[in-house]
Structure to design on (118 residues):
């Protein structure tokens, strides 16, 4: 599976951005897809994930502001980010866990920069 992200950029606080991640290859093996982010000097953290059954999970810091969804038979995911804050500034990485439940393997995209200015 190969992941390609798009949609990052620079936005003022309070603004919105939409990230997309398209998966290709053996997409039928995808169990979970999601977004993670890493700010300078900080560890990578989960932002939002969406499972094969469309259930979702969000980090507390983005609940009510970000929405994860999927299209194209589950091969593309989106992250709608509203009410952006400077603390949301980070490199955002698309992630997919693929394979059988007993031996899932994580795949990462190249990352896309999101910068929120004051």
């Amino acid at each position: 599976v190969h992941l390609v992200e798009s949609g990052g950029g620079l936005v003022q606080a309070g603004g919105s951005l939409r990230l997309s991640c398209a998966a290709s290859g053996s997409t039928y093996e995808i169990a979970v897809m999601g977004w993670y982010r890493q700010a300078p000097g900080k560890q990578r953290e989960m932002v939002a994930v969406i499972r094969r059954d469309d259930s979702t999970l969000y980090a507390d810091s983005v609940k009510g502001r970000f929405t994860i969804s999927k299209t194209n038979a589950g091969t593309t995911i989106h992250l709608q980010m509203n009410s952006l804050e400077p603390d949301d500034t980070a490199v955002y990485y698309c992630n997919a866990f693929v394979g059988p439940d007993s031996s899932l393997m994580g795949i990462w995209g190249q990352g896309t920069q999101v910068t929120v200015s004051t």
Summary: The first strand starts at residue 2 and ends at 6. The chain has no helices and eleven strands. The chain has a mean pLDDT of 95. The two ends are 37 Å apart (CA to CA).
